[in-house]
From TrEMBL:
<keyword id="KW-0489">Methyltransferase</keyword>
<dbReference type="InterPro" id="IPR029063">
    <property type="entry name" value="SAM-dependent_MTases_sf"/>
</dbReference>
<dbReference type="GO" id="GO:0032259">
    <property type="term" value="P:methylation"/>
</dbReference>
<dbReference type="GO" id="GO:0008171">
    <property type="term" value="F:O-methyltransferase activity"/>
</dbReference>
<dbReference type="InterPro" id="IPR002935">
    <property type="entry name" value="SAM_O-MeTrfase"/>
</dbReference>
<keyword id="KW-0808">Transferase</keyword>
<keyword id="KW-0949">S-adenosyl-L-methionine</keyword>
<protein>
    <submittedName>
        <fullName>O-methyltransferase, family 3</fullName>
    </submittedName>
</protein>
<dbReference type="Pfam" id="PF01596">
    <property type="entry name" value="Methyltransf_3"/>
</dbReference>
Length: 223
């Protein structure tokens, strides 16, 4: 049993590539202090639960993109307990909103509480259920953020393309998938991430790049 566990651990660590050198990540984190109570509480909760949030570096990046883009409607596929959505919401202007979608009701309840404490509940819609189904209820989406289970990325793209506004921005997290995109022995998540990246880069109606920040953030602008 111990040997099996050891082999599994070794195989896992072999198949994880930290995209950015940890010393650089540490340096970047030090440059980006945070004193917002809700952001700090959510980061602490993620650490305790080992819950995969986008993290502060990507949060700030999304926040900046949102300020530049000034969207009226942001739709998030896979909101967890609302950390990434809070970064969007804090950057939204008058009358704009972010739609949170998430399977787990208790995560959405926590997100709502955090948004209320932050005074931003009026900038959000909190939806429990399948993100792909809920997402399709919206039109003219200015920013689509994809952070659901990785095997669903290509299907999410197909479902959501007709719902995007002209000049929409598609943002997807984990598009380097801890380096598994360069491995030969991949599984269905890795295959889906690779297919999703190829789909996005092959489209002439989108201009796409991947920023190798944390686990790779894909940005795709609809021309
Ligand atoms: C990586 S976490 C999201 C983290 C969040 N974006 C953040 O950074 O704060 C992915 C979440 O998506 C949810 N999820 C995965 N597939 C989903 C689907 N099809 N519909 C709704 N939620 C989904 C999971 O329950 C999980 O909470």
């Amino acid at each position: 049993m111990e040997t099996i566990k050891k082999n599994l651990t070794e195989r896992r660590s072999r198949s994880m590539i930290q995209i950015t050198d940890p010393r650089i990540e540490g340096y970047l984190m030090k440059l980006q202090p945070e004193d917002d109570a809700q952001i700090l509480a959510m980061e602490e909760k993620a650490r305790e639960m080992k819950f995969p949030i986008i993290d502060r570096l990507v949060g700030r990046f999304l926040h900046l993109l949102t300020r530049l883009k000034q969207p009226k409607l942001v739709v998030e596929l896979g909101s967890g307990f609302g950390y990434s959505a809070l970064w969007f919401a804090r950057a939204l202007g008058e009358g704009a909103k972010v739609v949170l979608t998430e399977y787990a009701e208790k995560n959405i309840a926590y997100a709502r509480q955090m948004f209320e404490e932050e005074g931003l509940a009026d900038k959000a819609e909190f939806r429990v259920g399948n993100a792909l189904e809920i997402g399709q209820e919206y039109d003219n989406i200015d920013i689509l953020f994809i952070d659901i289970d990785k095997y669903q990325y290509p299907a999410a793209l197909e479902a959501m393309l007709p719902r995007l506004a002209q000049n929409a921005l598609v943002i997807a997290d984990n598009t380097l998938w801890y380096g598994r995109v360069v491995e030969e022995n991949s599984n269905k998540d890795s295959e889906a991430v690779k297919r999703f990246n190829e789909l996005m880069f092959s489209r002439s109606d989108f201009f796409t790049t991947i920023v190798p920040l944390r686990d790779g953030v894909l940005l795709s602008y609809r021309i």
